[in-house]
Design goal:
A hairpin with a 4-residue loop joins β4 (about 165-170) and β5 (about 175). The chain has helices at about 10-15, 25-30, 45-60, 65-75, 80-90, 95-100, 105-115, 150-155, 190-200; strands at about 120, 125, 140, 165-170, 175. The radius of gyration is 18 Å and the shape is globular. It is an alpha+beta fold. The protein is built from nine helices and five strands, in the order αααααααβββαββα.
């Protein structure tokens, strides 16, 4: 499966946010990457601002352009606020749910756990990171994977209460998607309306 494998700190510096999780490089170099990153830059155009917001969302959720476009078109066909539906669809991807449940420390690690068939949905192994989890479905760790050190380390001290749309069962190492998250509950700093305006041009 195609995915971004380039330098993550460079992307975080471009947007000035730790979009891949904790990023220590931002504390040292809180300016854009490149030879002229620390110099004054000319004002970004309106189109550039909208494009940057879309790029930030893509990198945050680990989705490439074609897949992201398809998700937007699907959201646009659904009744409701397009930008909010787009974010909800991204939040309900299996790799993101695994990350939100604290089973993996990053979305990239969550995607790897899914691809290596360590994750189940309603008791059945699912190896597709983009699988759309529906409300009521239970996402858990496969029995033989419960002893994996990376999973135990990620779950240690994780606060499951910060995501009210998910319910965690520690004894079963599984979580349930109670409902699709409200926009106010999604912590990502993404201005989804700019993405809608970009694709509407």
């Amino acid at each position: 499966m195609a995915r971004y494998i380039g330098p993550k700190s460079r992307i975080s510096r471009r947007f000035g946010e730790a979009i891949f999780g904790d990023d220590k490089v931002l504390a040292k170099r809180n300016f854009p990457p490149g030879q002229h990153g620390n110099n004054r830059r000319r004002k970004t155009s309106e189109y550039g601002i909208m494009l940057a917001e879309k790029q930030k969302a893509k990198y945050t959720y680990g989705v490439l352009e074609k897949q992201f476009r398809n998700m937007f078109e699907k959201a646009a066909r659904t009744s409701g606020i397009t930008g909010e539906i787009l974010l909800q669809n991204l939040e309900c991807r299996l790799d993101n749910i695994v990350y939100r449940l604290g089973i993996a420390p990053t979305r990239a690690a969550a995607r790897q756990l899914v691809n290596h068939k360590h994750i189940t949905v309603d008791g059945k192994v699912v190896g597709i990171a983009s699988y759309a989890v529906k409300p009521g479905q239970i996402v858990g760790v496969r029995e033989r994977a419960k002893s994996l050190e990376v999973i135990a380390a990620a779950l240690a001290g994780f606060n499951h209460a910060k995501y009210p749309w998910l319910e965690w069962d520690e004894s079963k190492k599984a979580g349930k998607l109670l409902h699709r998250p409200d926009r106010a509950d999604i912590p990502e700093n993404i201005k989804e309306q700019l993405i809608v305006e970009l694709y509407s041009k």
